[in-house]
Amino acid sequence: MTTSTVACRQASEQDLDQLVNIIEGYARQGIMLPRTKEMLRASLDTFVVAEVDGKLIGCGSLCQLGPDLVEIRSLGLSDGYKGQGIGRKLVETLVEQAKAAGIPKVMALTYEDEFFQRVGFEVVEKEIFPEKVWKDCVHCSKQHCCDEIAVLKSLI
After folding, report:
1. pLDDT, tens only, 105-139
2. pTM summary value
3. DSSP class of residue 42?
4. In sequence order, which residues have a C-beta less than 8 Å from that of residue 62 and are 6 or more positions away?
5. CB 3.0-4.6 Å disulfide test: which of 40, 75, 97, 127 passes with 60?
6. Per-domain residue ranges of the chain
7. What DSSP string runs through 72-139?
8. What is the DSSP letter of 13?
9. 3-154 adopts what CATH topology?
């Protein structure tokens, strides 16, 4: 399969169950924060989904952390779809949304830093993102032993 068969679009209410399933799979592995259906519904306008032949197989969202910074979060794929360029297409779509909104910096916390480096991000210290620390990290069980890697892409 090639990325040309993948369509990315804004998420809709009809996508909620599948979004929950994808995110829950990663959360069970301890590599993504869990999100309830209600949480996802409240932030649905921030989500992009990827479809192949009309089937939702991936998602990602942009979370505004400050006037000049957004975070890519909840980036995931259904089982069997990794390594096919779908994650790249989701990230590129989210980066384009950030550009269109005039946001100059996009960051992520990840265990897949090599993937993000291949799509133009650089590894940076987490401490340069106090916006993230105060918004989300204070509520995380890994707050004092975070093993995620911070990545950043400057759009200017």
Report:
1. 999 999 999 999 999 999 998 877 865 554 555 45
2. 0.87
3. H
4. 46, 70, 71, 72, 73, 94, 97, 98, 106
5. 75
6. 3-154
7. EEEEEE-TT-TTSSHHHHHHHHHHHHHHHTT--EEEEEES-HHHHHHTT-EEE-GGG-HHHHHHTGGG
8. G
9. Aminopeptidase (3.40.630)
